[in-house]
Design a protein that fits this description.
eight-stranded mixed sheet, alpha+beta
């Protein structure tokens, strides 16, 4: 694996480009058309602040800084011309960090990671909801809570859904010896939590570098925030398996005297997700289904396409179930909303937002429009357009409606010309020839840049870069184009995508600092999931003629598995086989993850032909965490 880029090495790549006149004019129009006079969010985001960390830099055991909210101290005053004023506003809000009182007995640490961690006080201790990405940031948040609220023990841990920024810090709040503490999660949580971060984890991690701007310097010409939060921490990802499954809406659980009523919301923002109602506090936790921005139907890092129809339905159900009593609604990102009338209106607008995108996309696809055409055609109603919490600072109307199209109709738009296109390099060579050669393409791109048509400039120059990746003028001009697209983006992740592309065109691929598949996650994989991780690494063409068998005898689990590699496919079964395997491995279940990773383990006994294991390993590819994106 390539080494991780240090913050210092990225900082030396500071972008000094200026915003072009079309971008400056666009920002001026946004200042006039959006309700910047409405500062209710600033009052809500500051409300209940109890204190911040003395030193905002959070370090791991080796002294490495894994999170530094102080890096966003530049976010004050009017927006510079290199940042969309709506995104600057949102980033200023998400950069606020500290411990906040939601209501007496419920507290949130915000700004100490991408997400929030919530503390609910019980009879003896405190329940922790969604312990951030990293154990280090979660531990710092708990210490901050205890400084202001006393040294209460953690008496319950709750995961609202299966994304890593809501469980990765578990070991930071709950030590390994605290086995008696209940851990609550929605049904299906464990399977989705580990599969998303392991099966496609390498590709998703590489793309997340672009989405979150992980290698960009923090500043007005670089990463200013993601819309959902400032950024992602880089500490130790952990996972404590759930001990209590929440399986149905209306299910009630009482932990440490705190009564909770649950609402299931699967296939919404996450495959496994739930909302929590706290009757004793008249407080509603909406997980990540009602935040202060338009969310993603499909994230730019890649994931399963979400169901906005179900999502909006869960918001209606939440209003019906809890809207009559709720006095505050909070989530695992952003800041709460107080007052029953405001709570219901907030949830209603969020509901209308996802329903509108779903319904209008389906209406237009049934009129024959394709995804890109729908993305140009759909505009939000004025009431949603003017609602700050419906703005596209994280998700966008453009990529969300294309995701809805994909959910219903897939990648193919029905036009046979798009059914069998050339891949980027071959298409690039043909486009460059058709446009008159490299110099002509650069001229077209430069003219489009001068006219402020950055989308067209990016398209034509991208063809040249893929046809001739060493063409310096094309790379530099395309990087300049991406600068302007980034400076003009209201969406935090779009900005990060464009500016990271510019950085890598100028400096080459920066090794990813994002790690997937932590030991805690790998340890939770079932034998089937571990065998699947091997199967998706098989280089099929390299072993078309290979045929081998391996028996895996899990001694303590009393399970025996037969793995077979033939026709470039690795399959497995528990059915007893009449013929002996080429090699048999006898091992405890706990040793299987290390074995799947290729690490020797003294607990493994090998019986039979050891060369079979070498042949199997030879069939496997190692994932590439630093593959190129904006170059071939």
């Amino acid at each position: 694996m390539a080494s991780v880029a240090s913050a210092g090495s990225v900082g030396r790549m500071e972008n000094t480009a200026k915003a072009a006149d079309p971008v400056v004019a666009q920002h001026g129009q946004a200042l006039k058309s959006l309700p910047f006079h409405d500062e209710q969010d600033f009052a809500d985001a500051r409300r209940g602040l109890l204190g911040t960390l003395d030193d905002p830099r959070i370090r791991d055991d080796a002294g490495r800084v894994v999170w530094d909210p102080g890096a966003y101290a530049f976010l004050s005053g009017p927006a510079p011309v290199t940042v969309h004023p709506s995104l600057w506003r949102q980033s200023t809000l998400t950069a606020m960090h500290g411990l906040f009182e939601v209501v007496p007995g419920i507290y949130q640490a915000r700004g100490l990671d991408l997400s929030n961690v919530t503390f609910v006080e019980g009879d003896r201790g405190v329940l922790v909801i969604d312990p951030l990405i990293s154990a280090e940031t979660a531990a710092a948040a708990l210490a901050l809570y205890r400084r202001h609220r006393g040294d209460r023990p953690v008496t319950g841990l709750i995961y609202t859904h299966s994304h890593v920024d809501h469980f990765g810090g578990a070991r930071g709040v709950l030590p390994r010896h605290a086995a008696a503490v209940p851990v609550l999660a929605p049904a299906g949580f464990a399977a989705h939590a580990v599969s998303e971060n392991v099966y496609a984890g390498t590709a998703m991690g590489r793309r997340a570098v672009y989405m979150y701007g992980a290698t960009l310097p923090r500043g007005a010409a670089g990463q200013v925030g993601t819309g959902l939060g400032a950024g992602t921490s880089a500490g130790t990802v952990t996972l404590i398996p759930p001990t209590v499954d929440i399986t149905r809406t209306g299910q009630e659980e009482t932990v440490d005297g705190v009564r909770m009523v649950f609402q299931m919301a699967p296939a919404s923002e996450a495959p496994a997700e739930m909302h929590l109602w706290f009757p004793g506090f008249r407080a509603l936790c909406m997980a990540e289904n009602a935040t202060h921005n338009l969310h993603n139907i499909l994230t730019l890092r890649g994931a399963e396409v979400r169901d906005p129809h179900a999502w909006s339905g869960y918001l209606t159900e939440a209003i019906d179930l809890f809207g009559g009593e709720a006095e505050v609604v909070f989530a695992s990102h952003h800041w709460p909303t107080w007052g029953n009338e405001r709570v219901v209106e907030f949830l209603s607008v969020q509901r209308d937002l996802y329903a509108y995108l779903h319904d209008q996309t389906v209406r237009l696809l049934n009129q024959g429009l394709t995804g890109p055409e729908i993305a140009e055609a759909v505009a939000l109603p004025p009431a949603l357009e003017q609602a700050w919490h419906a703005r596209g600072n994280y998700g966008s109307v453009s990529h969300n409606v294309r995701a809805v199209y994909q959910r219903y109709l897939g990648f193919y738009d029905g036009n046979p010309a798009h059914l069998w296109p050339h891949p980027p390099v071959e298409a690039g060579r043909r486009y460059v020839r058709a446009m008159g050669g490299p110099d002509a393409v650069v001229a077209i791109g430069r003219d489009a840049y001068r006219q402020g048509d950055y989308r067209w400039a990016a398209e034509v120059l991208n063809h040249l870069v893929f046809a001739e990746p060493g063409h310096t003028a094309a790379r530099q001009l395309l990087a300049d184009v991406y600068d302007q697209l980034g400076y003009g983006a209201e969406n935090g992740t779009w900005r990060c995508e464009f500016l990271t592309a510019a950085l890598e065109l100028r400096h080459g691929v920066v090794p990813t600092p994002i790690t997937t598949g932590s030991p805690d996650l790998i340890a939770q994989l079932t034998p089937q999931q571990l065998f699947d991780t091997l199967a998706i690494r098989v280089n099929g063409p390299r072993c078309w003629g290979e045929h081998l068998t391996v028996d895996v005898d899990l001694i303590d689990a009393k399970e025996r598995w037969r793995l077979t590699l033939r026709n470039g496919v690795l399959t497995y079964t528990r059915k007893a086989q009449p013929d002996p395997a080429g090699v048999t491995l006898h091992l405890p279940l706990a040793a299987l993850p290390a074995l799947a990773a290729g690490a020797p383990d003294p607990a493994v006994t090998i019986e039979g032909d050891r060369s079979v294991l070498g042949r199997l390993r030879a069939a496997l590819d190692d994932p590439e965490p630093n593959f190129p994106i904006v170059t071939p």
